[in-house]
Amino acid sequence: MAEYTQIESEKEFEAAKKKIKEGEIDLIVRFSDGFEEQTKAYKRGEPLPWVNTYENPSEEYSAKTSSFVKQCWNLIVRHFW
């Protein structure tokens, strides 16, 4: 089972990006600030909240997982908004 850590600050995010480059972690999924509130209040035509992924390029499954997360987000956007 995969482990995850919730990143609370920009400093933690920068440290996590460094760990990606060093191969210590495999994937970061970053949501726009206020993502949950934005998705609940979303109205057609407004800017969409975003999801970005950062993956460990030396791990094939990291790239596959990153692609899967992006595809899921695109599917949700197309079918529910």
Question: Could you give a short description of this structure?
Answer:
The protein is of the alpha+beta class and 81 residues long.
Can you tell me about this structure?
The structure is a single chain. Helices cover 51% and strands 12% of the residues. The protein is an alpha+beta fold.
Strand content: 5-15%
Strand order within the widest beta sheet: 1-2
* Sheet with the most strands, sense and barrel status: 2 strands, antiparallel
Shape, per Cα inertia axes: globular
> In whole angstroms, how far apart are the ends?
31 Å
Radius of gyration: 14 Å
Mean pLDDT: 82
Number of strands: 2
**Helix-strand pattern:** HEHEH
The portion of residues assigned to helices is: 40-55%
Task: Label the structural class.
Answer: alpha+beta
- Poorly predicted tracts of residues: none
- Helix segment tally: 3
In terms of topology, how is this protein built?
Layout: H1 10-22, E1 27-31, H2 35-41, E2 51-55, H3 60-80
Antiparallel strand pairs: 1-2
